[in-house]
Design goal:
Strands 1-2 form a two-stranded antiparallel sheet. The protein has a two-stranded antiparallel sheet with strand order 3-4. Helix content is 57%, strand content 6%. β5 and β6 form a beta hairpin. By secondary structure, the chain is mostly helical. α9 runs antiparallel to α10, α9 packs antiparallel against α14 and α10 packs antiparallel against α12.
Length: 422
């Protein structure tokens, strides 16, 4: 609200600057969104190429140090990619592609050796213990498959989501994660996966068997991740299909932005990735379950939502990509709502930051999920509650901007909790 103040015998107008600012052109706001997407996918590609180099070094000269370097490169690669997940919902070209690079959870026994009967229910998935690393030929849907050579084509065209089972994840970050860390068999106890570097050693030092084929799988999966990210980066270039689709109509573009923010905040992150795991008290429900990196994935997902609203992204090399934003549009229409939503986004980042800080101090996310762990439940529910609250602000922002068609993805864990246990 504008108010009048007395200054030196004259009336001076004192008003919040945002209330007087002219709204930016809507097409400029959508262009900022596309520019940030281009930067995030380019950073994801660059960090995946660094992972590729680390994987090549591990395979060429296996050692404990080379395995740790590859793990470090994987964790670093997650930072820009998780910030890009806000582009999934509302952008069909991204959502249709995303399962190739970030699908989870996975039946890791499809890929490599696992602990006997660990995590599998009889009859649920016939391929859950295939172990293609140790199996050069097998039958799939009545057809004989020659897997003597493990290639990107085998992973992508034959194994990934084989038999229509979503848990048959053969490609992407989490397949690579499993091949670097191995299973985390600690349950709710401390510690991540402990795959030995000798799983990639050649000759008599090889552990786990089939070290040459395991290396083939790791290299093929990593090369495929790089090529998939290169493809998506091209889609957001100046002449890219994803950029063209979102910028063609500014109102549709704004709706895509808000759909991505709301759906990732509510149904995906607050629901499927956080509340569901807490309801089930299942360490297998954590997003980066082999590496215990889930706290970072949650944090950078949240940061990606805030990036879109503020129209600002800080790249892996420190460069800043910014421009006219949703915040500018909302502030011009309703300054109080903009301030409130900015506050909600900050509260979410604080809550996700608390999870990240606790995990980095040794209280890993799978430990937080243990039934009866009041501290862990409070940390996770702090994030869930903040994400839900910011979603309500996102929905109100859509109304203020006249975008009545906003539909936010839901989750049974939030909308129908009893259905989770049916």
């Amino acid at each position: 609200m504008t108010r009048l103040t007395l200054a030196a015998g004259a009336l001076a107008l004192a008003a919040a600057p945002a209330a007087l600012a002219a709204p930016p052109d809507r097409s400029a706001v959508v262009e900022t969104y596309a520019d940030i997407a281009a930067a995030k996918y380019a950073d994801s590609l660059a960090s995946a190429e660094r992972l590729q180099a680390a994987v090549d070094a591990l395979i060429s000269a296996p050692s404990a140090q080379a395995l740790e370097a590859a793990k470090d490169a994987w964790v670093a690669a997650r930072v820009p990619y998780q910030q890009s997940e806000v582009y999934r919902f509302g952008n069909a070209i991204v959502d249709d592609w995303e399962g190739k690079v970030n699908a989870w959870p996975l039946d890791e026994g499809l890929i490599d050796y696992v602990a006997p009967a660990h995590g599998f229910a009889e009859g649920e998935n016939d391929l859950a213990q295939l172990n293609v690393v140790a199996t050069p030929a097998f039958t799939l849907s009545g057809q004989e498959v020659d897997a003597a050579e493990i290639t990107a084509a085998l992973l992508q065209d034959v194994l990934h989501e084989a038999d229509g089972v979503e848990a048959n994840v053969a490609t992407g970050y989490h397949a690579i994660e499993f091949l670097l860390w191995g299973q985390d068999l600690n349950g709710h106890g401390p510690g991540a996966g402990t795959r030995p570097w000798t799983d990639y050693a050649q000759g008599p030092d090889c552990t786990g068997g089939n070290c040459d084929r395991r290396a083939e799988y790791l290299r093929a999966a990593t090369d495929l991740l790089v090529s998939d990210l290169a493809w998506m980066t091209a889609q957001w270039a100046e002449d890219g299909a994803a950029r063209a689709a979102v910028t063609e109509d500014p109102s549709s573009g704004l709706l895509a932005m808000l759909t991505g923010m709301g759906s990732l905040s509510y149904g995906e992150q607050a629901g499927e990735r956080m509340r569901l795991g807490l309801m089930l008290n299942d360490p297998e429900e954590e997003h980066d379950c082999f590496s215990d990196n889930t706290h970072n994935s949650h944090y950078y997902d949240g940061l990606g939502v805030r990036n879109v609203y503020l129209g600002r992204y800080v790249g892996i090399d420190g460069r800043v990509v910014s421009g006219p934003s949703l915040s500018d549009l909302v502030a011009a229409a309703d300054p109080a709502l903009d301030a409130e939503l900015q506050g909600d986004l900050a509260a979410t980042m604080a809550a996700l930051g608390d999870i990240k800080t606790a995990a980095e101090a040794g209280f890993a996310y799978d430990m937080m999920l243990e039934r009866g762990n009041a501290e862990g439940e409070a940390l996770i529910m702090g994030g869930v509650t903040a994400l839900i609250e910011q979603t309500r602000g996102i929905e109100r922002a859509a109304e203020v901007l006249g975008l009545q068609a906003l539909e936010v993805e839901g989750s049974d864990s939030l909308d129908d909790p009893e259905a989770v246990f049916q």
